[in-house]
Amino acid sequence: MNATVEQFEFQAEARQLLDLMIHSVYSNKDSFLRELISNASDALDKLRLEAFRNKDLDVDTSDLHIVIDVDKEARTLTVRDNGIGMTRDEVVDLIGTLAKSGTARVRQQLREAETVGDADALIGQFGIGFYSVFMVADRVELLTRKAGESEATRWESSGDGTYTIASVDDAPQGTSVTLHLKPEDAENELHDYTAGWTIRSLVKKYSDFIAWPIRMDVERRSPADDEGGEDTVTVEAETLNSMKALWARSKDEVSAEEYAEFYKHIAHAWDDPLEVIAMKAEGTFEYQALLFIPSHAPFDLFTQDAHVGIQLYVRRVFIMGDCDQLLPQYLRFVKGVVDASDMSLNVSREILQQDRQVKAIRRRLTKKVLSTIADLQSERPEDYRTFWTQFGRVVKEGLLSDFDNRDALLRVCSFASTRSDEESTTLAGYVERMKDGQDQIFYATGDTREQILRSPHLEAFKAKGYEVLLLTDPVDEVWVQNVTEFDGKALQSVARGEVDLESDEEKSAHEAEREEQEKQFADLIGWLKETLGEHVKDVRLSARLTESPACLITDAFDITPALARLYRASGQEVPVTKRILELNPDHPLVTGLRRAHSERAQDPDVAETAELLYGTALLAEGGALDDPARFADLLAARLARTL
Ligand code: ADP
Ligand code: MG
């Protein structure tokens, strides 16, 4: 029946994963069945959709289903569907390799997971669905024929690093996967998957909600009738799952386990969701939504091809996955299903973009997700922390794009602050703790907490006991430009504009001293403006320094160097903006420079000291020098003279 059998090697990463699966100590070996059924169900969804879109496709979609066959003698289990099937190339591409986007990460994780003991964690982390069959089987055959094609493909592997592929002439359309089962091993949670009741209970447990019938043949023995003769045995196909769409049932009818299994199916996840959101809208636009907040961020959350988690159904019919119109980008980690009542089955992505109904659904879902996060925050702080650690960076992207929900977004955000090393704070918490007379929310941005804490900008805030938010995500640098206030309190960068931390009393007490200093330093400042004119737009005395000699400040409406770097990295042109040099009039380097300048204004050494002072201020905040080599030369020459 078939022609040549070709042998292939698994792609390296796939091979390592297979190895992991074969020697798996993963306790939940049963889940292989959920994975096979999940794939079969996806294939049936795809076929129905394809048949609907492509009227030329000559397929019978009147009885789409999944069949499970067991053979006790041969110890095989087969899961068969009459879904979309795969071409030969697709088999090589989809089964022979791992999802491309994940390979780099998988490779790294595999290198780190030296022992099989780490398998649980690893298996949980990747949607490595199909390969899970090798937890329970020594050998696996897959026979598949794509809808609309005549040639079929047989794939076979023992999970030993190679697989074979052959073309086959006659095969039913769809896919069947046959497992040659390993011996039963109850100690290692390897059950007897040829036992009808095992299969029945696994399907019930993991796959009850699957929208397609999952059938299995059962033998029914009718006892011989009164007139003697033999018992009659009939074989009947029994449907194992209820096929009830979970989103159509009310929340109190569905158990947490059922939700979790459904989540695993649609999200291709192996762990439980952090939170379930079930919604039902009636009225103008009727729809039901079942959304999940995952407990772990997927590895591709920040890549270009990050998956969007929402599937669109219309009256129980799967229409599309990755439906990016139903939630904003910054909620792309939310998984789930939206089932709309009054939409055309023919709806396309293009139509969705314009659709009023879709916009209304999107608004509602967004608000609901944000209010759910707010509830987590107030009711389940531990889970909220998990959530924020995993997804906070993504949620903050919303501060840039979603003006309507800005306040709700700001309320669910939390930030590190100078108040505590471990605990972060909400903005509301910060405002509650604000000092008498404080009317601004102070924040500092930077690469790391440590770097910000050592920056000269923070000195006066520390000395006077003001709390400062420490913002270290790249996105923070951007949103603080757009968000100017919270709860009527302005957001103020410690490294921008003027700061005023003194009370009125302190101010009047210092006024005379201040005026005196302005006079004393007027000459030096005038000269520094010229000498450093290439680097800074202004020089002034500082109210924010207590220990360092100088620091650099971004003018109130200028762009910060970090933001300029971000823009440049994304290919945009940004003009160089000069900053303001602030001097600490009490620092010996500054007073010494003033004296030196008044005595030897023409001495090139004095100008060099000014340059070094500027460079030091830049380094102290973690900035980069324009000409590091020159700075190093000047410094080395200076140091040599001190020896
Ligand atoms: P995932 O389901 O997360 O994509 P899997 O390892 O479970 O990962 O499956 C890999 C791919 O193989 C699927 O995305 C699908 O394209 C294809 N596939 C697997 N099983 C089937 C099937 N029964 N019918 C059609 N395609 C399938
Ligand atoms: Mg799968």
UniProtKB/TrEMBL annotation:
Location in or out of the cell: Cytoplasm
Biased composition (Basic and acidic residues): 506-516
UniProt region (A), positions on chain: 1-349
A matching Pfam family: HATPase_c_3
Main localization (coarse): cytoplasm
InterPro entries xrefs: HATPase_C_sf (IPR036890), HATPase_dom (IPR003594), HSP90_C (IPR037196), Hsp90_fam (IPR001404), Hsp90_N (IPR020575), Ribosomal_Su5_D2-typ_SF (IPR020568)
GO terms under cellular component: cytoplasm
GO molecular function, one term: unfolded protein binding
Function: Molecular chaperone. Has ATPase activity.
Family from the record: Belongs to the heat shock protein 90 family.
Assembly with partners or alone: Homodimer.
Protein name per Swiss-Prot or TrEMBL: Chaperone protein HtpG
Lineage: Bacteria, Bacillati, Actinomycetota, Actinomycetes, Mycobacteriales
Underlying gene: htpG
